[in-house]
Amino acid sequence: MKNSLFDNKNIFLFFSILLYALLFITIILMASTPPVDRDALTHHLAIPKLYIEHGGIYEIPDIEFSYYPQLLELIYAIPLFFGNDIIPKYIHFGMALFSSFFVYKILRQRASLYAACAGALFFLSLPVIVKLSVTVYVDLGLIFFSFLSLYYLIKWQRLEKLRYLVFSALSCGFAMSCKYNGLIVFMLMMFAVIWLSEKKVAKSKFVIERACLFCIVAIIIFSPWLVKNYLWTKNPVYPLYNSLFNPSDSHTGLAGGESVKKSHFYYRRVVHGESFFETITTPVRIFFQGRDDDPKYFDGRLNPFLFFLPIISMIVEVVRYMKKKLPDHEKILLFSFAWAYIIFVYVQTDMRIRWIGPAIAPLTVLSFIGLGELWQIIKKKFGCSGLTIKSAFAIIIIAMFSMNYNYFFELYKKIDPIPYLSGKISRGEYIQNQRPEYSAYQYINQKVDRNAKIFGLFVGNRRYYCDRPMVTDENVFRKFTNNANSAKDIFNNLTNIRITHFVVGEELYSSWLSGVFDDDHQKIILDFWRLHARLIFRAYGYSVYEIIK
């Protein structure tokens, strides 16, 4: 049934195209600035850079992220090889564009052209999607491939052609190859394949054959990362479940030992001061209380309509079921997948909005299906000629998009790309404005010997802009200090791992020193800096020290 809410609205189509163009051009402008986002500098760009310098993939024990699936990082390595770290942003943004296209494709089969265009635009303009589109992360790759897997599974359910099930499995394999969160996608998709197979043919053989086909194809695509990790650590999904695969061997790099971690629910209660009610309502609060760069508020933003409208769609489905009508398996699949994914992330780890990314595209589709169904209900009950009803829906649509575009313009002002793109400020000046440690790295790159090895203390593990080998794990320094009886012991431990220089975030280091070590060890550390370290650079709160005998 076609959705008539947007039909014959040429002005709406015109503004949709205009807003899409505005969104596309402005995201390209924001993405054309140098990468400064944390995860890009800690691993999404830093690890491919190390691979390029080394001449190939190799084990990096002190960077845990190097054991994660790296499909997109290896793609990013291609422009990095040619000295370009802006194109990886465009590649990541491309994943959002592809996702919005398939949002359009699914909606177009159930709604008008205008509704499908509006849904694609709404998805692309969502705050979390816009924010990810201007960064060098991998979440949009996971979002795209997981939604592509759902798309082909729906197509298989409609057309009953086996190749679409294979395409779905291939896409699921690529989702797992982007990020370990893809394992959740794989688990949910396996349940979906079994469920849809049972709806087609209630025979165990058919169900088992289809489930096995999906599983084998997806695992084959994911297998290079499994094999790599098994060869390096004897754990194919390292560092996940390492106590299961290596109960007597914690493969944890330089620092050694696996720390006992508190539950993320405990963390939110103690650190963020959340009440029990706030904690248990987290899966709902993420739609209303998101805030960028604030872990308490899930480090990102969604749109409240992604919560309300899919529920309306499912209420309509319940009413249909009560009237003995055939269930809409596609809606049930999309809703179940989205909320099962959200709940799984909620239970497993401290919530970040980008971590529930694979749920966003299904919820977008359901939102516009729900909006269309609400329109049809009101149309049948009251007629659609009333100005009040039309105005109400226009207000809803404007509110949906205004929340997105308000964030969009806020982000544009924050990134402020024009001074850099116009040449008013240099690349180095732009990075320095965003990352205060940059000047220390530039000093190291220009003044410190190429054979040097740097120890970064409280630099946030952001190593990308440093062109010398680095260790950035504070626990290594803590271990060396706790095992030391004198400043000379710390010096010997550092020289054993060939450390020649330090770069230190002074403010965080000072509070850490007084909060972690007792008076005796503080004295040993201070003696070490006095006897075995020489300050050679300081700016913007970051210092560079040379290790001396």
Taking pLDDT < 50 over at least 5 consecutive residues as the criterion, the unreliable ranges are 1-7, 251-260
Structure classification: mainly alpha
Please tally the helical runs, counting DSSP H or I stretches of 4 or more residues: 26
N→C terminal distance: 79 Å
Q: Approximately how much helix is present in the residues? A: 55-70%
Structure, explained:
By secondary structure, the chain is mostly helical. Helices cover 65% and strands 4% of the residues. It has helices spanning 10-31, 38-44, 46-54, 71-81, 87-108, 113-125, 127-133, 139-159, 162-178, 182-200, 204-233, 242-245, 264-271, 276-280, 282-285, 305-322, 329-348, 360-382, 387-415, 418-421, 427-434, 438-447, 474-482, 487-496, 506-516, 519-532; strands at 454-457, 470-471, 501-505, 533-539, 542-547. Strands 2-1-3-5-4 form a five-stranded mixed β-sheet. The longest helix has 30 residues, at 204-233. It is globular and about 85 Å long.
List the helices and strands and how they pair.
Blueprint: H1 10-31, H2 38-44, H3 46-54, H4 71-81, H5 87-108, H6 113-125, H7 127-133, H8 139-159, H9 162-178, H10 182-200, H11 204-233, H12 242-245, H13 264-271, H14 276-280, H15 282-285, H16 305-322, H17 329-348, H18 360-382, H19 387-415, H20 418-421, H21 427-434, H22 438-447, E1 454-457, E2 470-471, H23 474-482, H24 487-496, E3 501-505, H25 506-516, H26 519-532, E4 533-539, E5 542-547
Parallel strand pairs: 1-2, 1-3
Antiparallel strand pairs: 3-5, 4-5
